[in-house]
Amino acid sequence: MGMAAVVVSFFSLLPLVFVAWVTIQAGWATVSLLVFRPRVADLLLNTTALIVLTVPVCAGLAVALAWLTERTDLAGARVWAWVCVAPLAVPAFVQSYAWISLVPAFHGLFAGVTVSVLAYLPFLYLPVAATLRQMDPALEDVAASLGHGPWRVFRRVVVPQLRLAILGGSLLVALHLLAEYGLYAMIRFDTFATAIVEQFQTAFDGPAANMLASVLVVCCLLLLLLEGGVRGRARYARVGSGTPSRSRTVALGRYAPGAAVLLAATALLSIGVPMLTLGRWLLVGGRDVWRMGEILGALWQTLAFALAGGLLATLAAFPVAWIAVRHPGRFQRFLEGCNYIAGALPGVAVALALVMVTVRVALPLYQTVFTILVAYAIIFLPRALVSLRAAIAQTPVELEQAAGSLGHSPFGVMRVITLRLAAPGAAASLALVGLGIFNELTATQMLAPSGTQTLAMRFWDLSGELDYAAAAPYAVIMVAASLPLTWLLHVQARRRSGR
Amino acid sequence: MKFAITALAGAALLAGLAIAPAASFAQSGIKPSADGIVVYNAQHQSLAKEWADAFTTETGIKVTLRNGGDTQLGNQIVQEGAASPADVFLTENSPAMALVEKAKLFAPLPEDVLAEVPAQYRPANGTWIGIAARATVLAYDKTKLKEADLPKSLLDLALPAWKGRWGAAPGGADFHAIVAALLELKGEKETAAWLKAMKENAVPFKSNSIALKAVNDGQVPTAIIYHYYFVGDQAKTGENSRNVALHYFKNGDPGAFVSISGGGVLASSKHKEEAVAFLKWIAGKGGQAVLRTGTSYEYAVGVGAPSNDRLVPLTELGAPKVEPSALDSKKVMELMLAAGIL
To answer: What is the CATH class of A290-464?
Structure first.
């Protein structure tokens, strides 16, 4: 098991190591020529501005919406809570497509920030709302009894408890901002990811693209460090769980209409716009755009990739998750760190590295299904790990010991006890990874075997030719496929906190 | 441990089997092989697909397309070298063909294939041929500008008067080809200066069609594109070009450059007979007829092959004379990188 975990970590770090190696090989002169140039400064400025503007807006909005839906007497709060999560079902580049076809002149930083906030808001809303629900209102009562007003209580008691959720969510959003290609390419906002793809499209695996990827990787590592630093070691837990009382709901009173408007506006922009544009294009396109042969072909191929990639990622995550739960220690923490970093790398950097590895040193694997599946497994490993770890942790080790004492071999124990009890976690992992693959664009474009046409690729090609009507069916299928899982996430988040 | 590794390998293998395309059943033509040919295609997907489908129907030879940009696929073939899975390479412009030609990766073409295309639409050395052509134009907003307001030469767009007033798709191979022609006609110094001015003056767009749409929507008054984006949109709904007209520079100006789309057979191809047959078909009657009757609106270049009626005839474009295989994409990349455009 330990060996397998090492193998998985090796694979997931391989791209990073290779990029570093090529950078060193290129020599300082080339590196400085390609890194210290105005274009890179432009990109750095754009990317930084995007993160600095998007993340706080996203966080502020998420806290406000979560507070309104969880802690107030807002009418229809349960429905609104779902509405806040629902944008998760709309792939970021579909969100962008909806806006650009509605407002053709929409572009640049402002557009980038707007669409990013709308697309990634659920990443912050989900953890913040979950934390708000679980929070013990006793602390707030104590603060209030000490003479603090409602605002002060919110600022001094509630916000600090939300810190971890906000930081974690912000990190996730920031990493997505660094990695996303389709969203920004469509609204003409240049980031590292778009520039790397552009370089790839002109020079294949030329040095300029690799240097940009190196800078992007450094940006990711900086974000991880920053989040780790800011998170600190403060303790937010209580000794003994006790039974938290139900938090009281705040009466909105005369603010109720304002709150409703805020929620309605967010929903209108994040779900209304995509639904409106998709509906309009479907109407314009009529029956002609449903070329079923092509659509079904792409759907079948996408499903096959999603299933196979989901299986591979889940299998790869199993040993790592098992070790993390059963044998925690320094070695395990090191492995976990490796996978964490690899998981934070943008898909475009992983894909570029895999192109380079396969074309230069592993030619038989070049442009094969195997390579694209490995890429998927690396990119989506964190999703699989999260699901599996929780499931294995809930499997009582005593049952494994009992099975062992009854004469089962270690593998027998694994088969009879661990794998069976962890099956729901494996299913969740399969679904989460599968959904990621379903909507994946860049890595698929760069690595997939000749002749591959996934839904995302077809959508991208058609919308690139400005055939928005013909692209609409593909977008609709991607959204429809993502909806059940989004719903499941929403329900699970609520159930976990006991409602 | 072993279990996990075997399981990993097993899953990957299983997935590979599940996705591997089923072998096609060929019917006629020159004994079609089971795998057919792989075409690295940088031409418009819809056009290439039309060609491939018609060719397959006629000959039973299976064609798998790998789509990408000119320079991407050109560089990819060079990087892959003798191990390239590609049998045929089709581009939108000549520089990427010149790139592969320079790496000596093309197989020389038989006389009967070369004879399909007049000499001015293929390089002198016979390693590849033209399969279509496209004309550089300045698309302009006819609600704001009159013919008289337009620049006389592509070079005029470097003047301060045009600051922020023209668009282009500098990331695409089409524009690289235009710059390559400029480089060939005017030399490195003048091209570098023009690109530097371009960084100041031009509004960059992701693609030609988006640049055209931007002119139509009044975001930018003019844009350097190829003719068929406009013609194609006019033929469809005109939705993205209602306010647009085309300006042809003519007079041998670099801005009147006619770019030749190329096709070649890779020396490393394991299905050369089929690959050559495909290329001959594209350059011959069948393929060129698709250009005339289809929705690509690119120029036909085959011997005696007429182009679509909607197009200004090739002979009236006043294009400058440029040897297609002299177009240097590598140098263009360097210059554009140095100008901060890429």
So the answer is: mainly alpha
